[in-house]
Amino acid sequence: MLSKGIQLGKLLKNSCKIIKKLEIQAPKFHYQSLLFQNHYSFAKKATKGENPFESKLSNIQNLISTHGEKSIQVANAYTDLMNSYVKAGDLAKAIDAGQKGINALIGSQGENSLEVASAFNNIACLRKYAGQFVEAGKDFEKAIEIAKNINNKISSEHLYVFRKSYSELLLETGQYMKAFKELKAGHDDVLEKFGDKHPGLIDLKYSIARSLLELSMFRDALDYLNDALNLSKQVHKDGDSFQARIYNSIGVALLRQGKGAEARENIIKADEIYSKFQDAPDLGISIQNNFGYLYTSIGEHKKALESFTKAKELTESTYGTGHIGLAMIYSNIGESHYHLNNFNQALDNHNKSKEITIKYYGTDHPMLGHYNSSVGQVYQKMGEAQLALDYFKKSAEIREKHLGDSHYETANSYNDIGQSLFQLGDFNTAFVYMMKALPIYEKALPPHHPNTLRAYLIIGTIYNRLGHQEKALEFLNKCLKIAREHYGDDSTVANCLNNIGLVYAAKRDFAEALKYLKESLEVKKKLYGEDDAEIAQSCTNIAGMQNALNQLEDAIKNYEKALEIYRKVLGNDHFYIGNISSNLGVVYSKLGNNETALKYLEEARDNYKKSLGEENHYYTAVIRAIEETKSKL
Fold first, then answer.
1. Number of other CB atoms surrounding residue 474 within 10 Å
2. pLDDT tens-place string over residues 94-139
3. Of 295 and 595, more confident
4. Model confidence at 278, in pLDDT bands (50, 70, 90)?
5. 3-state SS track over 370-389
6. Contacts 24+ apart (CB under 8 A), 289-297
7. Among the residues of 173-259, which ranges form H helices?
């Protein structure tokens, strides 16, 4: 046992040296530096059989005996114990000690003091690290309330720091509008009390822009980012590392507006500044991620994958191979594989995100809601709607527990569940979930936010399947108009055009349907290229309209194109292959070519038997079609 303790001590001593170097390069590594230094200290004591907390706990009991539980001496001792637990990496015990310290502090000097406010802020930060987001929010709010009540110049300095800390939690948990309001209040308070050159305004403007970006308020975000950049150039030297962060975020804002060329210029500018300083590895990682997002936005998914992989490698070289920051990067890599139709690799990477998160935070952390949703999206694209639904329900349970049932992220899960139920043919229950999501989006997000638009799109599509074509067109045209105004010809526009086409098909206006479906296909080709599953879906829909209009040769060409793509993307055993083979059989039968029709129908039969089983209605329908075709030979 002693040798293992010595080995651990040596390992931690080396880690301490590495982290100490990083701390010199970037202050954000101070926490990690303390953590490793103290792990090393505790490891040394452990090899000697010492309990590093025993003397501190004994001292607290002596102080309680001498001064009582509600005394400043006891409060300070609990704070010291809390810091020791933090340094040892035991957040649960640190939080418990910190709460006892707050109780002693309030008992000794009342609630309205900056010391109490700071104590609430500190324990809120610990709760955030531990994933106790609801409790952390309450403690941040208490710190802010106390600082407001004191209302002097010193408390105002503390107040904007507390608000900034609280806003980080709100941004992390998807409460973007609340974060914006908190940051804006802090910004206006600093402006009023300290003037427009206060350095704190730079970070506040930058953080306000972050919240606005999440709300898809891109123009307003750019205004704040440019203000932050100009103030930074006045207060600091031109080209400092924080300016790289601002250029990086300007790139994100432009990217989300569809201004790829301008976005690229700003991300490159951020990278140039970063390369001079390299004092913030997290910024270098963020820049590589943003290059990945840039390439994703223009359909360059292989280049996106390269950028996300660089971000992964930089994270591993800086923080190690098991760092929590890798969770989101693996998720990004998974998204690239998803777009490249590498479904197994997509699932592998999303599951790595889950594994890292569980390792750090356990099985009950809010981010698992996001990663379960990502896995569900992959299964959805694979046509595995039931598997997708299972993961979306897991995501909803986690988000409801941690964020509540009226939160924006929870609405995302309701949206996902609605889509899966739609694919499974349960249109009424799908509609219920979508109508749970929509009011949450409309309250929390602007009308042009992608998630609000997605809700309009799906609700319109469900109305169509329920036979309410005019309501369907109302929602789909609303979605199309807003999406085109804000994003140009993006995936939402392509899906709106496709689904409007299907509404006209339901109204038996096949010529109008074909017009919209062809327009959708052209947008998709620009976004995805020629061989994506989205193209196959459009070709299938177009062929259906051409069949209805007796444009049979054209229908065959589009069905065969769809079949070719799906074979590449999904393999020969997916039931989509059976569907298209069956449709080709029907078209060839209409042409009187019964031998070719029979060949395709038998292929569909074999596919359905393998993929769906003999009890499925698709299988029984194709058996009847085979019998009818044979009778014509």
1. 15
2. 899 999 999 999 999 888 899 999 999 999 999 988 878 889 999 9
3. 595
4. low
5. HHHHHHHHHHHHCCCHHHHH
6. 289/329, 289/332, 290/248, 290/251, 290/252, 290/255, 291/267, 292/332, 292/336, 293/252, 293/255, 294/251, 294/255, 294/260, 294/263, 294/264, 294/267, 296/335, 296/336, 296/339, 297/255, 297/258, 297/260
7. 176-194, 200-214, 218-235, 241-256
